[in-house]
UniProtKB/TrEMBL annotation:
Residue ranges constituting the TRAF-type domain according to the UniProt record: 129-171
Organism: Aplysia californica
Entries under PANTHER family matching the protein: TNF RECEPTOR ASSOCIATED FACTOR, TNF RECEPTOR-ASSOCIATED FACTOR 6
Keywords associated with the record: Metal-binding, Receptor, Zinc, Zinc-finger
Bias kind Polar residues: ranges: 1-14
Alphabetical list of SUPFAM superfamilies matching this protein: RING/U-box (SSF57850), TRAF domain-like (SSF49599)
Region (Disordered): 1-24
Name this polypeptide is given: TNF receptor-associated factor 6-B
Stored Pfam families: zf-C3HC4_2 (PF13923), zf-TRAF (PF02176)
InterPro entries assigned to the protein according to its UniProt record, in alphabetical order: Znf_RING, Znf_RING/FYVE/PHD, Znf_RING_CS, Znf_TRAF
Domain RING-type: 46-85
Low complexity bias (residue ranges): 15-24
Chain ranges of zinc fingers (TRAF-type): 129-171
Gene3D superfamilies, A to Z: Zinc/RING finger domain, C3HC4 (zinc finger)
Length: 191
């Protein structure tokens, strides 16, 4: 079995189910790109990113956009609505909590369905499910660079992690797996 390695995390690299925002100003979050069951009506799509609205904002001219998509569009354009070109500022945007509630109740397939998870759940419950899904990728608790499916973590920590503690057969000292060869050169009972 192969294990994945990573040097960065994406909210442990999973899109959030609603209320979290990018960790930096330069990072933006477009709409939701999940396998919705059934697919939502087109009115729930952002006209900018063409995905399902994330943190929907409605304009004074009645159009809906993802929060980050419309803010980026207003900064990059001449303060105009991308749909009808009407003058628009950030003050002309307001949260569309009704649409947000509806979207968070839409059913999706678990993002790990390609790996075998057959769970279908409301979008708003995704983070809770990912915290339990046996196929969700999780970082190694030993803080090695590996990210493995939750169901394989015990095997990884016990048998594959470079930072796992191994007991020296000669002196019984606990040594990191990566340091065992060096330890054998200095082990007082190895010779």
């Amino acid at each position: 079995m192969s294990y994945y390695s990573s040097t960065s995390t994406e909210q442990a690299t999973f899109p959030s189910g609603g209320s979290s925002y990018p960790s930096s100003l330069s990072e933006t979050m477009e709409g939701y790109e999940y396998d919705f069951v059934p697919p939502p009506e087109p009115r729930y799509e952002c006209p900018i990113c063409l995905l399902i609205l994330r943190e929907p904002r409605q304009t004074k001219c009645g159009h809906r956009f993802c929060r980050d998509c419309i803010l980026r569009a207003l900064r990059d354009s001449s303060a105009r609505c991308p749909v009808d070109n009407e003058g628009l500022t950030e003050a002309d945007l307001f949260p569309d909590n009704f649409a947000k509630r509806e979207i968070l109740n839409f059913d999706i397939r678990c993002p790990n369905n390609k790996d075998g998870c057959e769970k279908i759940l409301p979008l708003g419950k995704l983070q809770l499910h990912l915290g339990e899904c046996p196929l969700a990728l999780t970082p190694c608790p030993n803080k090695c660079a590996s990210i493995v499916p939750r169901r394989d973590m015990a095997d990884h920590v016990e048998n594959h992690c470079d930072l796992r503690a191994i007991s020296c057969a000669n002196c019984c000292a606990n040594v990191k797996a990566t340091d065992m060869l060096d330890h054998m050169n200095v082990c007082p009972k190895a010779h």
